[in-house]
Amino acid sequence: MLIQKSVLVSFALFSAPAVVLGETIIATDHGVKTGEDATFAVNRLLKSLEGRSGITIKFPRGRYEFFPEDAYETHRAVSNHDNSIKRIAFPLFNLEGITIDGDGSEFIFKGRTSPFAVDGSTGITLTNFSIDWERTFHDEFEVVAHNSEKKTITLQADPVKYPNRVNHGEFLSVKYDWEDRLGSNIVFDPKTRSPIYQTTDYHANFNRPHEAKEVGPGRFELKTSFRKAMPPVGSVLISYGSNPTSRLVPGIHLANSKDITLEKVTIKAAGGMGVIAERTENIRLQSVTVTSGEGRFVATRADATHFIGCKGLIHMEDCLFEHMLDDATNVHGAYVKVVRPLGNGQLLCEISHFQQWGLIFAGAGDKVALLSRETILPFHECTVEDLEIINERRFVLTLKGMPAELPEGPLSVENLTWNPDFNMINNVVRENRARSILVTTKGKVLIEGNYFSSQMHGILIEGDNNKWYESGAVQDITIRNNEFVNIGYEATDRYPLYIAPLLTAEQRMGEGHYHRNIRFTNNRIKSFTGHFVHATSTTNLKVEDNTMTFSEDYPSSKKYPTIDLKYCDSVSIKNNTFTGFGETLDVLVSNDSTNIVIEENPGIEPNTESKASPAK
């Protein structure tokens, strides 16, 4: 079966005449009703829009429910999710100039109904509604007791919100028309509504055999093992399943489209990411909110937003992202493996990560870079003439201008054309698992006026060719006038700004630096760790005029250098102020770093600079 993410031209809902501009259609005039399943009527209404543009579908304010039984069905390959048959409530395929206006309505989804899929469309606006599920994809349990000697923990769940049962000693989470076993999990602190301090200590290994029994309505006793300690009584244990079923239902999926606007949309849950976009040009998020529903601690199963292989401008402003179980946003491309050269300018390639299978990597006219998978540095650029899909994992890439001879060793390809500019302005990120943002696009990036407070890094500028295969090296990033509060309450090596390609033991630094042209200025940092900036394989880095003050919100846990530079060149760290730490803050510079200026930083003693071993 050929599976791809191209426009679904077989979607029979769309093929009709007449272009009518500026027309508003009231959904309730077309069989859409509150208090009953609206899916079939919405699908029929969308079918009537074939060949039309400039249409606004308005839903009078209310609560609209969407069930999977009458939803449009098709196989969808969704990046960073698990590919599967999707049942879609709003299939917006091959459309132009369509607005969905909810007028403040609640859109409530049942089971594995995918809310919105936009594919092959231009000028789509989604506005003024919320997305939620009555039965979420995760479970929330209050820890009411535990016994370290017996290795038992007693959990209490709301039996209406989170129905569960025990079958022959196995704990099962009861969903719409399926049951999940316990899987990935994390512990939240009800006081902060965030992952608990040092939350990795309380990770439960539910993948190993464990015993469960019901000891009261919604109350269960489990015998299992935890990484270091049992969660404190009163904390909240979140269970959110395992692959390949825990990332099947994103809130909004954008693919192969252009000029998309999401405005005043609230996403309270999703069985995956809130918004996932791929190969889409120009996306604007204005006043988009991802947050947990009433009485819940957790919102989406994964990232609030995620962008892979897009171009044009991604603009994100006045948004709130909280309580998701992964990052607020991630903007990147993809490294694909070269399986072998085929001759005549052709390469047999393979999509590197299983949750990117089905990705449309490139099209005719795109510029790509060939690079060593050992150093993840490029050595040649050429142009795509053709891409022939073999299956969801492999394709043949025909290139113009490919070298007659290729170097020995494993190779990869990176798309240079599909790298967006990215603006992230005046947003709030807080109380979530993982990082605030990841960004590895070659476009121009502005991150300004935001509030960041996350369990792991604040801003991670990475790129890797070994795990998620997320490209690539950044070229122009400005990070200014942001506030970072208590970054890294996971209490490990977490920094407000962490710059480093992710390398395996078999990979190494090449000749040249991976990241370049990063400016981190006029930011305010409140820190209980004293961690400030880490950079590896970076050139032209400016860290100036920032202030960092000590925080008493968590136990002081400084474990790593305040400033840590490895294999860097042309770095200026000036006029940064550090107050309230009561100890000497240190700077670690590897002896393969060059042209490093660190001066006029009150709170760091000038003699604390030391040399570390070279980066590998």
Can you describe what's shown?
The protein has 616 residues and is mainly β. The chain has four domains: 23-135 and 246-332, 3 Solenoid (Pectate Lyase C-like), CATH 2.160.20; 139-239; 335-415, Elongation Factor Tu (Ef-tu), domain 3; 435-612, Pectate Lyase C-like (3 Solenoid), CATH 2.160.20.10. 1% of the residues lie in helices and 46% in strands. The protein contains one helix and 53 strands. It has a 23-stranded parallel beta sheet that branches. A hairpin with a 4-residue loop joins β12 (170-174) and β13 (179-181). The radius of gyration is 25 Å and the shape is globular. The protein starts with 22 loop residues before the first strand and ends with a strand.
Separation of the first and last Cα atoms: 43 Å
Major sheet size, sense and barrel closure: 23 strands, parallel
Coarse morphology: globular
Query: What's the number of helices?
Result: 1
- The share of residues in helices is under 10%
Rg from C-alpha positions? 25 Å
- CATH domain class of the largest domain: Mainly Beta
Indicate the CATH topology of the largest domain: Pectate Lyase C-like
Low-confidence stretches: 1-20
Number of domains: 4
What structural category arises from helix and sheet content?
mainly beta
- Give the tally of β-strands: 53
Shape-level CATH architecture of the largest domain? 3 Solenoid
Portion in strands: over 45%
Write down the overall mean pLDDT: 93
